[in-house]
Every structure is written in C-alpha cells, then in structure tokens.
Amino acid sequence: MLYLLLFPLHATFPVFNVFRYITFRAALAALVTLVLSFIIGPYLIRSFRESQIGQFIRDDGPDRHAAKAGTPTMGGTLIVLSLVLSTVLVGDITNVYVLVALAVTVAFAAIGFTDDCLKVRRKSSHGLNMWSKLVPQAAVAAVAASVLVMQPDFSSTVAIPFLKNVRPDFGLWYVPFAVLVVVGASNAVNLTDGLDGLAIGPVMTAAATYALIVYLAGHVKFAEYLQIPYVSRVGELSVFCAAVVAAGLGFLWFNTYPAQIFMGDVGSLGLGAALGIVAVISKNEILLLVVGGIFVVEAVSVIVQVVSFKLRGKRVFRMAPIHHHYELKGWPEPQIIVRFWIVSIICALVALSTLKLR
C-alpha cells in the first residue's frame, strides 16, 4: 500500500525512489513487522489470559509438560496479523504471487484457528480430526496452485537440486504435486511445534533462505548465472519472506523458554503453508526438503513410529515426534531447541550451496 502510494511520487520527491528497491522494502517490512509484534503481543497475551484461552497438554506427553498447562495459546494470531499487515503496507499488493502467498497463509491459519478454538471449547488437546484438517487444506492449496499455473510466465516444470539439466515437466500432475508440497510443509511444521521456540527457529531460517532464493529467481541475470528457474516478478516475495522472519522474531520474544504464549495450530499451519507456497512459486519445491530438513525429520519420525507400531507392535522412538524422544532421554528442553536450530541453519547452508553446485 505504501509502495503504491509513495513510489509514484518519486518524480517529484526523489527520496521516494528507494521504494523501487525490493531489498529496501524487505528490510522495511521486517522493521514494521517487529514494531507491530511488540505492540500487539502484550495485548494478545493479556486478552488470552483473561479469556482463559490456555494450552491443554496431551495425556501421553512428557511429565515436564504438565507445568505448561494453561499457558495462553493461539499466539500464531500475532505472527499472522503482523506479517500480513506489514506485507500489505510495504509490498506490491498488485503482484499475484504476493496475493497468493498471503491468501494461502491466512486460509491455513484460519483452519488452525478453528482447530485451536475447538481445543479450548472442549478443554482438550483434541481439535479437528485428521480429515477435517486435510480436506480444506488440500482444497485451498489446489485453488492456489491452479491460479499459479494459469499465469503466463509460470511453468509446470520442477527443478531438481544439484542437477542443472534435469527439470521434469509434471503437466497436469503439477497441481496435485503443489498440493502435496504445501499441505506437507504445513503439517510438518505443525508436528515440530512441541517445545518453546522449537518450530519458530527453523521457520525463520527457512523463510530467510527463501527470501534470498526468490530474489535471485526473480532477477533474470542472477537466475541465468546460477542456472535456476527464472520466474518473472517473483522477487517481490522477498518482502513477504522478510516479514515472516521478523514475525517469527517478534513472536520468539514472547515464546522463548519459558514461553509466555504458545503458537498453536493457527501459527504452525499458517507458517508451514507459507513456506510451502513460496517454495512452489519460486520453482524450488524439492529444495524445501533440504531447507526444512528439521520438519522432514519430525514428520518422518511420526510416520516411522506409527508404521512400526502397526506392523511390529514395537516403537522405534520413545515418543514421536522425535523432539519428545530426546526429552525422554533426559535432554533439557533448551538444549533440544538450540541444537535443532543449529541443524536447521546447517540445512539452509546446504540448500544455498545447491544454487551453485549443479
């Protein structure tokens, strides 16, 4: 909004010419997001406490989590509000890719919000059932993917990390593939959100990584030099990604151990979908497996645990997702969180190396 209002004035007031630069607006979006987070955060925490919107702990969880019962939840509302407002204020809202990213993030956050509300109403850790989550998620992702493939400069090919000349064209299968990426990313982040600050750290790392990737993919010379897919106008998503990073920082201020507020499904589902749709739009879908390596491990640990128990009657891990396994092994919660953050940074560095190693 500010971009559309102020940039046209640059002919009269040269100072407004800075709004033409994506890097400037990305930094501005991050600052605006942080300010909004620090303003809105205390109000939300106080409101949730007064309304008794507290966390309910799963019965089979680690014993140490019992002390967290009643901590305000649905803190993802703060994340989504701040990043959406700042993106609308600073970004180019006429850009279809920005609109799609915002719409998907808000829609998945709304699904998570519904889930959180049911948990609060039922005074239980059980909200929406699996299909009540997956069906609307798949529908939203399918609509978004369909909008993307209708864009004249959007391709249904998929880039493979480390391989410069291997870009299979999925054709009609691209929409289901994109749905899998977005829904998978959303639920993987949701599974990771189990300790204070555990999920938000890797989310920020992944968002920062994709902020650079979309900037490069939207610059024809950089994309050609690095031999990555060029997507016209996708660089504007750097503003959105910067807002995601800053929204995570703002939330972490209140969520760091011991947490004053929990993210809830409204945050984890929304942020996971944001990462997924950015990966799809930037044509670096497969790379998300590397960038979000922590989320992949968390999701796979749950799958392995369920399959093993059903087939063998035995558990591979003491508890899934895997961060609970390390809790039950005696690792202190801050130690698990920081180590997972370190691994997420390593994953991001490996992912960035693929841009040149082809």
Describe this structure in words.
The chain is mainly α and 358 residues long. 64% of the residues lie in helices and 0% in strands. The protein has one domain. The protein has 14 helices and no strands. Helix 2 (22-50) packs parallel to helix 9 and helix 5 (130-149) packs across helix 6 (174-192). The radius of gyration is 20 Å and the shape is globular. The mean pLDDT is 89.
Quick tags:
358 residues; mainly alpha; 64% helix
From the alpha carbons, calculate the radius of gyration and give it in angstroms: 20 Å
H-E string: HHHHHHHHHHHHHH
How would a textbook summarize the main sheet?
none
What structural class should be given to the helix and strand makeup?
A: mainly alpha
Name the overall outline. Answer: globular
Q: How many domain modules? A: 1
Can you count the helices?
14
**Chain-averaged pLDDT:** 89
Binned, the helix content reads: 55-70%
Low confidence ranges: none
Strand content: under 5%
Per DSSP E runs of 2 or more residues, the count of β-strands stands at: 0
Distance between the termini: 39 Å
What's a concise summary of this model?
The protein is an all-alpha fold and 358 residues long.
